[in-house]
Amino acid sequence: MELTLLKAKIHTVKVTEANVTYNGSITIDADLLDAAGIKKYEQVYINNAVSGSRIMTYVIPGTRGSGEVCMNGGAALHASVGDTVHILSFINMSPEEAETYQPTLVFTEGNNQIKSVEKYNY
Questions:
Q1: From the candidates 22, 45, 58, 101, which is the catalytic residue?
Q2: Is 80 marked active-site?
Q3: 3-state secondary structure of 31
């Protein structure tokens, strides 16, 4: 049996662009992805704290240090520029592995720059 647990969360970033004519996905500053351990093309969930919308898509790395969080294609219909979103990635593991596992949290400040990277410690 495997369990699905939170792998990483990029907490409270602002959408910087919404491009409905692009073929889909979300573009995220590569520095944020590296800090969270999220890989190119990895599936992510995007929770919009403004509209309540929750969607699933895949990641495309953006320019390092840019702070960009761009909703692309159909995802752009679920968030507007300036909306606050949380980006979550999940991982499958055995119950034994889950006993000691701790997800990564990336906290940001102005312009979606990394403020801190922490492990859940509950």
A1: 58
A2: no
A3: helix
